Amino acid sequence: MVGAAIGQILPLAVGVALSPVPIIAVALMLMSQRARLNGPLFVIGWLIGLAVIGVVVLAVAGPGDASSHGKPATWVNVLKLVLGLLLLLVAVRQWHGRPRPGHEVEAPKWMGSIERFTPGKAFGAGPVLSGANPKNLLLAIGAAAAIAQTGIGSGDQAIAYVVFALIATVGVATPVVCSLLSATGRSGSWAACATGWASTTRSLWL
N- to C-terminal Cα distance for the chain? Predict the structure, then answer.
């Protein structure tokens, strides 16, 4: 049953992992003087943000009987429908806000200060970009609800959500690991590549 739950949340986890803005944020942190400290702290904060969402949703879903007679409860189906509609609205907003041909993509103003982030700010940015980001928030809630509706035990639910969180963290954790393994502790070339990639995909992702 755990395998079935993991199978349901894999696409959602990949959707979170491929969010370009968090990847750009961590890449810029890795270009700072505090790269070896800020990078790992950001990833820890990111995981905490995802963990809070999972704990809250699974705690609410337990008493609410997310699974009834082996089938998803009605309220879970309604929740998934609402989440789908919200994701559609997010996609429409992003589509209408996409850069027009011939116009340069402007990076968010807060990105200009990332290289000067203190360790505390780097840690705080993690949960903000994982749990407060609208798309990631909706995907994480959807993943937790999908796990709850399988009717598996709380221990197995926790395992399935941990798998979701780990896969969802691959996008931001990979450059941090590469930076820590590098001789200089910097990942400037990777960051430049990631910046270009995220700029071209802003119209599709948050």
Answer: 32
Rounded alpha-carbon distances, angstroms, from residue 52 to 49, 85, 141, 144? 5, 23, 10, 11
| pTM metric for this prediction | 0.76
In one-letter notation, the amino acid at residue 124 is: G
DSSP helix/strand/coil, 68: strand
Q: Which residues, other chains included, contact 14 with Cβ-Cβ below 8 Å and sequence gap of 6+?
A: 167
State pLDDT tens for residues 48-72.
Answer: 999 999 999 888 876 555 555 556 6
- Rounded percentage of the chain residues whose pLDDT exceeds 70: 67
Q: Determine the longest span between alpha carbons in the chain, in angstroms.
A: 57
161, HSE (Cβ side, Cα atoms, 13 Å):
32
Closest CA to 23 of 105, 110, 130, 100: 130
Strand partners, 67: 72
pLDDT tens, position by position, 25-43: 888 888 888 888 999 999 9
Domain boundaries, the chain: 2-201
Task: State how far the Cα of 80 lies from the Cα of 83, in Å rounded to an integer.
Answer: 5
The alpha carbon of residue 80 and the mean position of all alpha carbons in its chain are separated, in whole angstroms, by 18
**CA distances to 46, 79, 128, 201 from 180, in Å:** 18, 40, 23, 27
**C-alpha span between 83 and 77 (Å, rounded):** 10
Vertex 7: Cα angle to 86 and 64 (nearest 5)? 60
